[in-house]
Design a protein that fits this description.
binds zinc ion; 7-stranded mixed beta sheet; alpha/beta; Quinone Oxidoreductase, Chain A, domain 1; 17 strands; Rossmann fold; binds NADP nicotinamide-adenine-dinucleotide phosphate
């Protein structure tokens, strides 16, 4: 075991603060990574504030962070995929059983014995896993990703959650050229959804509550922007979408979007608000529309997404901050005031 500097929350109402955690020494199959950048996902905020207490209660102290890019500093004797000095990344998962049908299909995100990057039982330490708001992390090589060398590491970090979470359902639901795709909520996830849908050749419409994001939405790849509080603008799109990705972090009316789907269209929720959403049955019944959800994506699929980003030079639009500004960043996240992902420069932790 060794000590590592980190930022943790002591309770649902405490700010994040400097702390020291212990990490395991790398085993034969482990990769040790010095963290360069870690994105701030709205899930970090939900978890730190125990907003998902019914499903995933938070264990304190909580060290969040699952959008990790760093430099390999040590590898175990059985590690073949990485060597010291490589750029590497870790997302939301750090372990799974590797033997269940889900793992065998490359769908580790559905493994019944999955270990998430933070706030999950840690078989190595006996405590809980600690995430990327830290100077280093030790992860089994199966859960470490390669980062294309042309990508800026600060902007690549958010691909590990915001990227794969929007990429995976778009592939599952067949977003391709000629499809009409809606993206609801232009935050960290939403802006990646726009970039991917555009790169895949779809016609993209962004739904936002923030009129100030209109120009950005068009620059990011949207063909049209709808201010979702304007009922007339919404009505123009009734019954026309093949697929809508809902990436909203707070309570909102999903029925308004279900009505915009064409026959057999699908709305996938990736946003995970604290409170249950109300659903009007007839919106789905009329038009045989479907509503589904989607969690992150598998490891092979995540690598595929990273390689696609390398090829198309896609990264997240980031505001790089020092770790000392993390609490301020959380306050801004609640107000939808981020363009479009905070990425923490972990070098700032050395000074803490
Ligand atoms: P984010 O950057 O804070 O973006 C959320 C966006 O939702 C905001 O920018 C805003 O967009 C919109 N919004 C916020 N409050 C709203 C309200 N009251 N009514 C309508 N729209 C509102 O968050 P994120 O990091 O992208 O995460 C989004 C959600 O996805 C979170 O709930 C997060 O936990 C969840 N998530 C799920 C997965 C998964 O695997 N399924 C993975 C990662 C994150 P506009 O300003 O454009 O309206
Ligand atoms: Zn996330």
């Amino acid at each position: 075991m060794y000590n590592a500097k980190a930022y943790s929350a002591a309770s649902a109402t405490s700010p994040l603060a400097h702390t020291t955690i212990t990490r395991r020494d790398p085993t034969d199959s482990d990769v040790q990574i010095e963290i360069l950048f870690c994105g701030i996902c709205h899930s970090d905020l939900h978890q730190v504030r125990n907003e998902w207490s019914g499903v995933m209660p938070t264990v304190y102290p909580c060290v969040p962070g699952h959008e990790i890019v760093g430099r390999v500093t040590k590898v175990g004797s059985a590690v073949t995929k990485f060597k010291t000095g490589d750029l590497a990344a870790v997302g939301c998962m750090v372990d799974s059983d590797g033997t269940c049908p889900e793992c065998r299909e490359g769908l580790e995100q559905f493994c019944p014995n999955l270990t998430l990057t933070y706030n999950f039982p840690d078989k190595h330490t006996g405590g809980v896993t600690y995430g990327g708001y830290s100077e280093s992390v030790v992860v089994d090589q199966r859960f470490v990703l390669r980062v294309p060398s042309n990508l800026n590491p600060a902007g690549a970090a958010p691909l590990l959650c915001a990227g794969i979470t929007t990429w995976s359902p778009m592939h599952h639901w067949g977003v391709t050229k000629g499809k009409k795709v809606g993206v609801v909520g232009l935050g960290g996830l939403g802006h990646m959804g726009v970039k991917f849908a555009h790169a895949l050749g779809a016609r993209v419409v962004v739904f936002t509550t923030s009129p100030s994001k209109k120009d950005d939405a068009l620059r990011l790849g949207a063909d049209e922007v709808v201010i979702s509080r304007n009922a007339d603008e919404m009505a123009k799109h009734a019954g026309s979408f093949d697929f809508i990705l809902d990436a909203v972090s707070a309570d909102h009316d999903i029925n308004a979007y279900i009505g915009l789907l064409r026959r057999d269209g699908n709305l996938t929720l990736v946003g995970a608000p604290e409170k249950p959403l109300a659903l009007a049955a007839f919106g789905l019944i009329m038009g045989r529309r479907s509503l589904s959800g989607s969690p992150i994506g598998g490891i092979a699929e995540t690598q595929e997404m990273l390689d696609f980003c390398g090829k198309h030079n896609i990264t997240s639009d980031v505001e790089v901050i020092p770790i000392q500004k993390v609490n301020e960043a959380y306050e801004r996240l609640v107000k939808a005031d981020v363009k479009y992902r905070f990425s923490i420069d972990m070098a700032s932790l050395k000074a803490a």
